[in-house]
Amino acid sequence: MKAMILAAGFGTRLRPLTLHTPKPMVPVMNRPMLEHSIQLLRGQGINDLTINLHHLPDKVIAHFREGGGFGVHINWLKEEAILGTAGGIKNAQKFLEGAPFLVMNSDVFADIDLKHVQAFHEEKGAVLTLVLKAGDSPEACDPIEIDDSGRIVHMPGVPSKNTPDTDHRYTFTGIQVMDPRVFDYMAEGVFSGTTTDVFPQMIEDGLPVYGYIHEDYWIDIGQPASYHRIHRDVLDGTTRWRLPEPSADPGRATIIPPVHIGHECTIAESARLGPYTVLGDGCVIGENVTVDNTVCWRGITLEAEARVTRSILGDGVTVSTATRCEDAVLAAKA
Description:
Elements: E1 3-6, E2 27-28, E3 31-32, H1 33-42, E4 48-53, H2 57-64, E5 73-78, H3 84-91, H4 93-96, E6 101-105, E7 108-110, H5 114-124, E8 128-133, E9 144-146, E10 152-154, E11 169-178, H6 194-204, E12 209-213, E13 218-220, H7 224-236, E14 254-255, E15 259-261, E16 266-267, E17 272-273, E18 277-279, E19 284-285, E20 290-292, E21 294-296, E22 301-302, E23 307-309, E24 312-313, E25 318-319, E26 324-326, E27 329-330
Parallel strand pairs: 1-4, 1-6, 4-5, 8-12, 14-17, 15-18, 16-19, 17-20, 18-21, 19-22, 20-23, 21-24, 22-25, 23-26, 24-27
Antiparallel strand pairs: 2-3, 6-11, 7-13, 8-11, 9-10, 9-11
């Protein structure tokens, strides 16, 4: 099965971090989030990928190139004008048509067996299968609803017409399997959304659109709170995802686990790190610094006596001597 990763968004909820760093390159445990998506697919035998880009695309392509270093082949599609989810998928039709294919957002993490999703899709004879998750979400007041057979009968934001009563209400995870017939519902070269423009019409027309219920770990990391949470969950071992390499030696600094330290960091003996702290490569942690519940990208400098808590610090940020930094999201000037 082929797959498409939707990666053309601006990452507005993570600004200012994404003003000069494209969202697919935002690090999670010191590796670009897009790399995690690629490895999820590759690990399940999916290595023919199409990825769309819009914001700062050349920075992404320079890192991944044609995908060979990551065990996959990547077709890149740079959108001069952003096309939305449906427009982006339609733009990739020549790479995807011919058989059912998988589409996923670049900012979701899930402990999921995609072969089970594919088998469910085939068993139901579905044109579209959305992977759904129960629980609290931004759409909790208007969730996706399915009937007892798993067929989707209502989408958020779309008035229901004769919708059957159901207690089965879920959130869309951003992972889906599509039959090529979905292309008939997508306009070419214009901005359009799958959940707003395409899926509701397919349901209205009576096409077999189903929901596969995912009961294991899933998170959308497109905003600061969930970005913090994915790091906490990985450090805690809540997910099946494991660290790609062990934490570097912190020297004689005080460490309150869990903490993960990147390569070539300089940490003063009097510094205090943790809990739930991640340092990217090349960070410099000064005398008597304390940092907790914080994700630091590459090349961070925390000068003497700095206090940092519950923050996200982008590449190259410096926190000055004796500065207190709480609940901050900071990016260095370009």
